[in-house]
Design brief:
With 234 residues, this protein is α+β, with helices and mostly antiparallel strands. It has helices at 7-14, 39-59, 208-220, and strands at residues 66-71, 86-91, 111-113, 128-130, 137-142, 158-164, 174-188, 200-206, 224-229. The chain contains 3 helices and 9 strands; from the N terminus they run ααββββββββαβ.
């Protein structure tokens, strides 16, 4: 210890003045216990804000119910739309474009049911088709019962017609002549005791092009009528 320096002077020189605040490299006083936010924290906060805004937008999407037609009484295939018993109800739908909405514009031509409908189902656009006589016609296909679903076809059934290939392809090959046509009626002259049941005819709804294809298949020989969807008899 140098001459003239007291012990109290030494403590005063070593101690930091009371109340002195830490100073940053730029000369600014830093508040005690606070640290600057790093980039990771900023990204996390921004992601949280984006998620909150997205959730709010999804919750505010318009989910108002649609006015649809609901069948109130069972109806077989071929029932005119004007005779179909329906009521208008408001129902929340995931895909409203698949259904016949109460205010939708109907296509030209007379419409009938394409499939049997049960009471309580919502009417879809695919449940309707244009009636025979508007843009389609009817054609009778002579075929044995054993090659037409065992003779169990009924009006309203949907069928495919299969026949041997007509284009000179592979020997023994077959092809679809028409697909998903509606059965309008069936007839058999082989009914009764002792009848063989081989004389059988299936009348289907066709357009002009389908009629030509079926006619060529009939001339070519054997063909098969395959049921693809069940209808409802009279």
């Amino acid at each position: 210890m140098q001459t003239g320096q007291t012990v109290s002077d030494g403590f005063a020189a070593a101690a930091e003045p009371v109340g002195q605040q830490p100073v940053t490299a730029t000369g600014r006083i830093r508040a005690p216990g606070r640290r600057p936010l790093n980039g990771g924290w900023v990204l996390m906060i921004a992601a949280g804000l984006v998620a909150a805004v997205t959730n709010f937008a999804l919750l505010t999407i318009d989910e108002s119910p649609s006015e649809v037609r609901v069948v109130t009484a069972a109806a077989p295939a071929g029932t005119p739309l004007s005779d179909l018993a329906t009521t208008v109800e408001q129902i929340q739908l995931d895909n409203p474009e698949q259904y016949l909405l109460a205010g939708s514009t109907l296509p030209d031509g007379d419409l009938v049911t394409a499939v049997p409908l049960e009471a309580g189902v919502i009417l879809r656009t695919s449940d309707l088709r244009t009636a025979v006589g508007s843009v389609a016609g009817a054609m009778s296909i002579p075929v044995s019962q054993s090659r037409a679903a065992g003779g169990l076809l009924v009006p309203g059934d949907r069928v495919d017609v299969i026949a041997p290939r007509q284009d000179g392809g592979d020997a023994g090959g077959v092809e679809y002549v028409v697909t998903d046509v509606t059965v309008l009626g069936v007839s058999s002259s082989g009914e009764g005791l002792g009848a063989t049941g081989t004389a059988y005819a299936v009348t289907v709804e066709v357009n002009a092009d389908q009629a030509l294809l079926i006619s060529a298949a009939i001339e070519g020989g054997s063909l098969d009528v395959v049921r693809t969807a069940r209808g409802e008899g009279p």
